[in-house]
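INFO batch 0412 | record 1 of 1 | parsing
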Amino acid sequence: MVIGLTPVVDVLLMEEHTFNVPKGKGIYSLILGLDEDKYIRIGALGMKKFPAGYYAYTGSARGTGGFARIKRHLAVASGNNPARHWHIDYLLSLTRPKGVVLTCTYLEIECTISAAIGYMTPTIDGFGCTDCGCSGHLHFEKDIDRLFNVVIEAHKMDETIQKVYSF
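INFO prediction complete | emitting tokens
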């Protein structure tokens, strides 16, 4: 996988909560499925209604662990990690991970990608954006294929190489 100024977009589709997390750093959008409407308490955000459908959570994995952050999210989703530090942790245990779109980059484009997704899908206000000025980093869509297409397009910055893996 090439890492540099031109992002590389990978799409990983999940059948289970586990998959081989690639090496590298960058930005990711985790795609989650929620089977029924639920009211969920999201830390300091309080109680929020989440309609059944699909969600894309966009985050940064540019720190020392890189994309290993996704492995942590999947551990929370599967119940193997009870930690509840971030907004996404409260949602993960009630949803099914469906896939993740990765952009390998050192650029700070998390908010740009999230805003592009939010331009095409509804944003969950205040979710996942306590450290930036965005309206939210979680987006909703009823149709999973449309959500994947919107997220993939948002991750395409300049010229990219897209790879699709299924598990």
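INFO post-check: The helical segments are 68-77, 87-92, 110-120, 144-155.
INFO record closed
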